[in-house]
Structure formats: C-alpha cells, structure tokens
Predict the 3D structure of the following.
Amino acid sequence: MDTSAFPTVSCVTVRPWVDPVVDERGVDPRSTYVEKFWLGVIGPTATWIMRRFAEEFDHHPNGFRIDLAATATAMGVSYAKGPSSPFGRAIRRCTMFGLVLPRSDGFDVRRRFPHVAHRHLQRLPTELRDAHESWVRATVHIDIRDLERHLISAGVPPRTAVSASEAALLAS
C-alpha cells in the first residue's frame, strides 16, 4: 500500500466506494458469508472495521467522519497515525483486498463485499473451500445479459464484457 495515501490525522472522512457490480451482487460486511469466508482472508480486526463502517453507512449513506484512534480503542487495538499500528495494518489489509481505497483525507469504502476470489479461497481449509463451492452452487445464478450490462456500465469494454460473461457462464 502506498503509505503516502494513508491519512496522517486521526479524524477522517469515510465515503462509499461506488461499484455498480459489487454494490448489486456483493454481500453485506455483517453477513454470515463474510464471517465464514472473508474472515480467514482479511483477519478479525479488518472484518470488524468493515462492519463498523457498514453500521455507520446505515445512518450516513453518503459518508461520515470518524475518529480512527477512538474507533481503534473501542475495538481493543492500538492506534498510531499511519499504517504501522495493529489498526493501521488491518486497514492496510482491507486495502490489499480491495475493500478500502485510501485518500489523503480518509477512505473510500465498499458498502458490500465481492465474493472471495478463487486464489484467496485456496488459502482456506478444505472444509471451508467445499462449503464455499456449495454456497456458490446454491446461490449464484448467472444471467449472461445482466452480467454483460453491469460490466459495460462499470467501464469494461463491450468485447471484453461479452468474453467474461461467456466464461462465467461456462464456469457455473
């Protein structure tokens, strides 16, 4: 993570990270899916941070100010300005996994999590990988035209969107 983008003050602005595909297809940070499949990928502190942000977004959907030091203390972890404290490392993990985008005055934060990428699932125990596969089979239904439309609206070139949609259909 580019530490120069990490806020240098404790009170920051958190804004929603708008992503039409993930916003429609993703899962709430407080969901069982996140607890079961994302927790082992990003860790407990990062999961709790994302849940706190989700709670605040419920009350302030366009964004809010938050005191990172007070939030860290309330969660029982230490805080130091920058990314080197336990709280900062958890934010960095959120950034590494595409859940938070640091800005000079705060963060853009996803309101919903994407499904865990295959490469991250490979690090989880076999029973969780199997449970994820069962979850996908039971819940994910691909509408190829809908997927193409969302990819194009997210800025993916039409030809690439068609190819990706066809690949997703074949993989399902």
Q: What stands out?
A: Residues 6 and 102 are 6 Å apart (CA to CA). The chain has a mean pLDDT of 88. The first helix runs from residue 20 to 25. The longest strand covers residues 11-16.
